[in-house]
Design goal:
Blueprint (H helix, E strand, L loop, with lengths): L8 H9 L3 H14 L5 E5 L1 E4 L28 H14 L4 E4 L9 H14 L4 E4 L2 H11 L3 H11 L1 E3 L10 H7 L6 H13 L4 E7 L5 H18 L2 E8 L6 H4 L7 H14 L5 E2 L3 H4 L1 H7 L6 E4 L6 H4 L10 H10 L3 E5 L5 E4 L1
Parallel strand pairs: 1-9, 1-10, 2-3, 3-4, 4-5, 6-7, 7-8
Antiparallel strand pairs: 10-11
The structure holds iron/sulfur cluster (SF4).
Iron/sulfur cluster (SF4) binds next to loops.
Amino acid sequence: MEAGERMDFEDGLAILESDDLLALGELADLARRVRGGTDEVYFVQNLYVNQTNVCRVKCKFCAFAATQRQPHAYTFTAEELVEDVLRQREVTGFTELHMVNGESPHVDFAFYRDTITALHEALPDVHLKCYTASEIHHMTTLSGLTHEEVLRELRDRGLGSLPGGGAEVFAERVRRLVAPGKEHPDIWFHVHDTAHRLGIPTHCTILYGHVETYEERVDHLIRLREQQDRTGGFLAFIPLAFHPENTVFERRGWRHTTGADDLKMLAISRLMLDNIPNIKAYWIMMGMPLAAVALHFGANDVQGTVVREEIFHAAGARTETEQKVEELVHFVREAGRIPVQRDTLYNELRRW
Ligand code: SF4
């Protein structure tokens, strides 16, 4: 690795099969530094919102989605959403709005277009990081437009970047088991490819810790690395551990991933994804103590202040939903690193 050689499939598998966790951490931290990483750890002030939880897809790992008829189903209009976001803005500052939703069959493309327009008009200085590749694809089925036409239109109305959700695990075997209603992975890649070519940066993820094998995890990372070689538009990679609560997997006795597995996943992400600059330790899912350790396993970003988060909490995440800037700063310092507040595009806003 020090010779700059790219890790191949077999290397990736050997890493995941290794039990020498500390050596893996050291290797991942070294990889981060060799590629120009410093002691800086980034975070962003962001607000998470979900405009609708109505979804037609029915992924087996999802505890968030509802059908239109269920009592907890909701869909906010653009006006209601803007009102809510402006109310939040009075309480906390944020530079990024992170929005993902269910794929509601009861809306049309104008719903999304008008939402972006209204958000951008109300918050022109806030970066709109909205809609997974699956949602963008959903908009094409609602409207008959192409991915490019949908993305162009949203970009021209103020969309800044795409979050990385909907990737799950790309292997078809896994997708058939956990998300049979979801589009083919080629579509996920086509949306991101198109976004990158239109100058819209995106993020990428893996949802691990359910039915996938180590081979399938490595395959997932290699596919992302190849895409990044082609278009270079991924800003960051976020490994997301599966939370079984309130899903069919809980009834089958599934448990959370272990801390060791989470750290291993971060380390291999840093080692394999040699062309994606930022690896996030998503504290909302792993909790702050483990996220602090993660900073020594290849992570250089702790996501954000996340004022509200519903998706992982619907599936049993027990972390706080808001982390104040001072607490994040304290936590990064305690881990021996320099806290740097960033905007979505990794421009430095403030350092401590
Ligand atoms: S994960 Fe997303 S697409 Fe799947 S059921 Fe939940 S909201 Fe719908």
